Amino acid sequence: MNNMKYTVAVIGVGVIGGMIGRELTRYGIKTVMLEKGNDVALGASKANSGIVHGGYDPEPGTLKAKLNASGVEKLFNTALELNVPIKRNESFVCAFSEEEKEHLDVLYKRGHENGITALEIIDGDKARELEKNLSESVVAALWVKNAGIVCPYELTVASVGNAMDNGASLVTDFEVTSISKNGDAFEITSKDGRTVYADYVINSAGAYSGKIASLVGDDSIEIIPRAGEYLLLDKSEGERVSRTIFQVPTKEGKGILVSPTVDGNLLTGPTAAVVASPANKETTADGMNKVNTLALKSVPTVNFRNVITSFTGVRSSNKDGDFIIGESAACPQFINVAAIDSPGLTCCVSIAEYVIDILKGIGLTLEKSASFNGKRNDPHFFRKMNDDEKNEFIKANPAYGRIVCRCEGISEGEMRYAVRTNPPARDLDGVKRRTRAGMGRCQGGFCSPTVMKLIAEERGIGKEQVTKNGGGSYIVTEKL
Amino acid sequence: MENHDIVIIGGGPAGMAAAVAAFDSGIKDVVIIDREKEVGGILRQCIHNGFGLHKLGKELTGPEYAHHYQLEVEKRGITVCADTTVLSVTPDKVVTATNTCGILKLQAKAVILAMGCRERSRGALNIPGTRPSGVFSAGCAQKLINCEGYSVGKKVVILGSGDIGLIMARRMSLEGASVEAVCEIMPYSGGLTRNIVQCLEDYGIPLYLNTTVAEIHGNERLTGVTIAEVDERRQVKPETKRYISCDTLLLSVGLIPENELTRGAGIGIDPITGGAVVDENRMTDVSGIFACGNVLQVHDLVDYVSDEAEIAGKGAANYVKGLDRAENRVKAVAGNGVRYVLPQRVNTRGGDTDIFLRVTAPFGKVKFTVKSGDTVIATAVKLRATPGEMEKITLKAAKLRDVDGDIRVDLEEM
């Protein structure tokens, strides 16, 4: 890897970096994706609401409005190609007072200005007819018919995996600490002294994009990290609602939502609190109470005794409120893709295409590669088989018959596949995000010792070297 | 599709004792399915002693107790289908399972559910803070140490004083770790008295009652926890917050009967026990499906699991033989001071019937009265009663015979 020369280096591998990386391989561009963590999707991409937003919310004329409007269908098509679970489950934005009802009209009009027509304002009774568990105090709702849900970390993993299958490189544990111009090329160096070279740099470092930009003398980006806490509930709560239930948005964000996930759980959250550092990912008693209380305002029957886990994601907001996407004024051939907060996930494909246009505009020659294959094999092929198909498959691949994660029904074969497939899972959380092992009711209590053993075997390392999520997050300390 | 008389799901202490009892009651075609490569269930990781005193009259370790039943199973030539996970059970008793040979379907005349229980996880407790490694359920740590042979940490805090937590406090001390504190949110321990003495007091480990873990710290591995006292409503008292540096947090905060297959079969669940609603034979409300052991109710001692499993095994055998002809079942319900009663349905025309119960809080001397209407069926006096120790009251056949309404158990303090 030393002294490797690439055409484009993408710094930061969340869903934006992954989609840009994939888009670059469509044109056969020699691409490296650099990630400071030991896996992809470790920032906001693993901890967000997983919503495909309709596009009624952004201010008309903004980049957000434009990329959201074009992004929804692009995302649906891409997720399909990548075999990532996505569902057009629609959404409601609920008003609880006459004053809030007026705000629905504003959103409706704004939606139309943004080119979103799949909108309808309905009264509370109609809303409850469609969602029987909705609160009696909902007086009206904006029905968003083009909205959906997607699994954000699977989308990231799939985009990176597809980029790698098409020739891109992924380098993990590569924390960029300096970027300098060496002739025409950027020289990018990591904390541990490794270097890569590239003609163009894409800064998609999420909450750290300001820091990365400043390495090339661009101090224009000021990210305001805003933490959002979530409570995830067991699948027994997964059918409380079929649509995503929002409340009328406030200045702080889109408010607390109640939504099914593509995997059948129920997700509630997020809060919105400015934090000192994007590393502040703790949950708080106040935050969890707030999620609980506000979620019950929309859907009073949610049983919070069935919470299986809580987590915090940190949004990369900025003062201006719009995405920052473009070549840096301070440094040519260095493209910032920053301040990608909501609806960033919805826009990930449209952003990637937008970045390609920018690169074209500044002189990168782009011709579609004949060998590019945008399809990714379905990592969940096994769980989708019927009993007869499974039976046949197990006879040839016995490890698929042995269930390791009993709560989610994940076999040893599926776990080994996750460690062997691009981008390879390297730790417990990596296997979890790719297979769902440990995401169920027992939260890994039963299966983690076995998953640890499989990772150690697959990677040829000792069990004491297997971590939860890289760095010093070891599980066992020493052999007794 | 294979046909069998009795299929037992789970080869832990409950499944094995049920199999032996069913066989000895005359049904020879019994199959045990277990997801692990060897039978024994959680007993295999319980290498401490204290098992078998009541049932076998000797003090054994968990693996020894399991071995005793394993030999009984082998002696009878009962089929064990190991390394096999059951995926579903239907109300008409078709069991679908998977193993490395493929998917198998078994049609049973009777099914005995003996899947055991799981531990409540950190997520279910909503403990604020970060999500580092080093936070284990006590049983998971027990498996890593006793079965896999790895140390999980050096400086430990334990939340919850259930029996597994207490046992693990001692186990971690024996492995050279320093156990800084055992925190219990309730005003009393949920564990057996003998475990508090032998696992904490003998090792000088402090037990803090009315105390919980209020925050978890550390970004990669756990670096410490904040503990705090709680008020009567179990809310943290902020002024009592105290930081303890540690690399390991063990959670022993409750066991949940693992009834996903049970629910899938449409069987009714008791919201208090978390297990199926059963009659005196441990048959659920789906005819021919029985349940026993920790999947039915969480037990204090494995000895009682074996007892309960024998009832279920015999009941399933009689069902297969067509001998279950009880027509006079009444409900048994919990009254004052009683959290739950099991079985929840009792045959009034059968033999002597034991009912099991747990109390709602710790009491001194108490009297239990079992009544139907104004008729007293049984009474029992205990010198003390705690939620951590299951109580048993025997209802005599002669007394039951006159009963035709629901049975209720009340506690009065003496």
Give descriptors for this structure.
A: 480 residues; FAD/NAD(P)-binding domain; D-Amino Acid Oxidase, Chain A, domain 2; Arc Repressor Mutant, subunit A; eight-stranded mixed β-sheet; five-stranded antiparallel β-sheet; B: alpha/beta; seven-stranded mixed β-sheet; five-stranded parallel β-sheet
Give a written overview of the molecule:
The complex is a heterodimer of chains A (480) and B (414). Chain A contains twelve helices and 23 strands. Chain A has 480 residues and is of the alpha+beta class. Chain A has three domains: 220 residues, FAD/NAD(P)-binding domain; 149 residues, 2-Layer Sandwich (D-Amino Acid Oxidase, Chain A, domain 2); 79 residues, Arc Repressor Mutant, subunit A (Orthogonal Bundle), CATH 1.10.10. The longest helix of chain A has 19 residues. Chain A starts with a strand and ends with a strand. The model of chain A has no long low-confidence stretch (mean pLDDT 95). Chain B has three domains: 189 residues, FAD/NAD(P)-binding domain (3-Layer(bba) Sandwich), CATH 3.50.50; 133 residues, 3-Layer(bba) Sandwich (FAD/NAD(P)-binding domain), CATH 3.50.50; 89 residues, Immunoglobulin-like (Sandwich). The longest helix of chain B is centred in the C-terminal third of the chain and has 19 residues. Chain B has nine helices and 28 strands. In chain B, helix 1 crosses helix 8 and helix 4 runs parallel beside helix 5. Helices cover 21% and strands 34% of the residues of chain B. The model of chain B has no long low-confidence stretch (mean pLDDT 95). Chain B has 414 residues and is α/β, with parallel strands linked by helices. The interface between A and B is large, with 55 and 49 residues. Strand 23 of chain A pairs antiparallel with strand 11 of chain B.
